[in-house]
Amino acid sequence: MVRWRNRFAFYLLAVGSACGLGNIWRFPYVAGENGGGAFILLYLFLAFTVGISILIAELILGKTAEASLLKITERISATHKKSYFWVSMLTLFITTVILSYYSVVSGWVLHYITQFTIGIIRQDTSDYIAHLNLKVLLNSGWLQFALASVHLIVAGLIIDQRVTDRFEKILTTYIIPTFVILFGMLLIRSLSLDSTPQVLRFIFYPDFAKLNLKSLGHAIGHMCFTLSIGLGVLVTFGSYFKSDEHLPKVGFRVMLVDVAISLLSVLLVFPIAFSIGEKPLTDPSLLFEALPRLFMQFRFGAFFGLTFFLCLWIAALNASVGLLETLISNYSERFIKKDRKYSTWLIIVIILGLTLMPAFSGSLFKDIRFFHQTVLENLDSFLINYLLPLSSLGLLYLFFKAVSKSDIKNSFLRENSEASYILVKYWLHILKWVAPVVIIIGVFLQILSLFRN
After folding, report:
1. CA 319, CA 333: separation in Å to the nearest integer?
2. Which among 327, 359, 383 has a CA at the least distance from the CA of 151?
């Protein structure tokens, strides 16, 4: 059985999606689409109740079973004489498709790294500024596919060559400190813009009239995405923990970091977006259009831009490694009767095939639109706002089937912690009643909005 080398190794992978594209790219435009402050309050409430509860449950499920998701469903199916494979297959399908288009968006980051590098080499910003416009990239499907391929191949090499320890050391020693410093500098500069008072009103003076039928579902979906709920990732990671780890405390820390990055990302991106004016807050390219504008106001802006997007890509790579590791640990045990190396590259080839649709959504498939959205936007919306919350419900169902009442309490309670004895009943109540009801209502309201539009 694989074990975490230390607790911080888990934090790196579990928070990777938040530090990378999950919140910095996605949260600002989702918040803008749903009216700002009221949506952010809704998201925070869900994260501190439903999100943290399901996160802990998935970690405990993996730790108790000490197995991957497919092995857990196999055991439960054998015990109860009933097939539960639909839960694991739905979860792994979602993880596979999300990784395919997540790799495309990670390729956008690689594109910006390339353009900022060109700017530094040429020492002439006039030529490469035009290429910082994301539309140039979106019109080239093969370029997006090539960049996504590079991203996935690097992730595969990290796993295949077993250099995760070295990768972790680079992250902790160089990337994270650099990223934190740059993020702080950009945040200060962004909040110094004239648009900041307007942004603060938009964020901290919630107008609940701006919430719509989709808002609850969007908040649940984004919470699941950034916390890696419903993806099987936490179940896999939970199986790597030692028996003496107190998972509620671990999960709470991950959730706090996720929420903090969400809020800081909005404060970073919105002042620039408001000052630009012509860029809609609901556009998925908001981050990529806004941040380069800020970098161009800096002396040595190309250097800062290169460093920031390089850190952002490595953080996105960190999240991709976690998703890929989950797929490998599950598929290689049941479907791919070969060694780990073969499994790794076969899965990457399959995912590369799936990247073709989102990669060409702005060129070859640009006329294919559903609900006024591109292929990539529809993938993001359907998977994260509909399927991912339902997958989370499926994993909750498995949790109560696979983990006994005594194991549940033993995993949650700590003898020297009176708070754990008080919180356990609220936690179980949320898992059994609040989370299922909230998720079902969120999905139903989104379906209802489709007919009203």
Report:
1. 22
2. 359
CA distances from 49 to 46, 189, 212, 228 (A): 5, 33, 21, 16
Residue 166 burial (CB < 10 Å; 0-12/13-18/19+)?
exposed
| Cβ atoms of residues 275 and 194 within 8 Å | yes
Q: CB under 8 Å to 225, separation ≥6 — which residues?
A: 17, 22, 26, 98, 384, 388
**End-to-end distance of the chain based on CA atoms, in angstroms?**
51
d(CA 316, CA 16) in angstroms, rounded, equals: 7
Structural domain boundaries of the chain? 7-452
3-state secondary structure of 445: helix
| 342 close to 213: Cβ distance less than 8 angstroms | no
Q: Which CATH number describes the domain made up of 7-452?
A: 1.10.4160
Check: CB of residue 34 under 8 Å from CB of residue 214: yes
CA atoms of 37 and 40, how far apart (whole Å): 5
Q: What is the pLDDT along the chain (453 residues), one digit of tens a residue?
A: 444 445 555 555 555 544 567 788 888 889 988 988 999 999 999 999 999 999 999 999 988 888 878 888 988 888 888 888 888 899 999 999 999 999 999 999 999 898 888 878 876 555 555 556 677 788 889 999 999 999 999 999 988 776 666 776 777 677 778 888 888 888 998 899 888 998 899 888 888 998 999 999 999 999 999 888 998 888 887 877 766 778 888 888 888 888 888 899 889 888 888 877 655 566 777 788 778 878 877 777 788 888 889 988 988 888 898 889 888 888 876 665 567 788 888 999 999 999 999 999 888 888 888 777 788 888 888 999 999 999 999 999 999 999 988 888 888 988 777 788 889 999 999 999 999 999 999 999 999 998 876
DSSP 3-state of 221: helix
What's the CA angle centered on 66, arms 62 and 69, to 5 degrees?
A: 50
Q: Which residue matches tokens 């353009």?
A: 115
**267 token code pair:** 């404060």
Given a contact cutoff of 8 angstroms between Cβ atoms, the answer to whether 325 and 14 are in contact is no
Do 94 and 230 form a contact (C-beta atoms < 8 A)?
yes
Q: Which tokens in the block code for residue 123?
A: 């020492």
**Location of structure tokens 């469903």:** 73
Q: What is the pTM of this model?
A: 0.90
Cα separations (Å) of 324 from 157, 351, 356?
Answer: 11, 10, 18
Q: Are 19 and 315 in contact (CB under 8 A)?
A: yes
Return the sign of the alpha-carbon dihedral for residues 109, 115, 121, 123.
negative
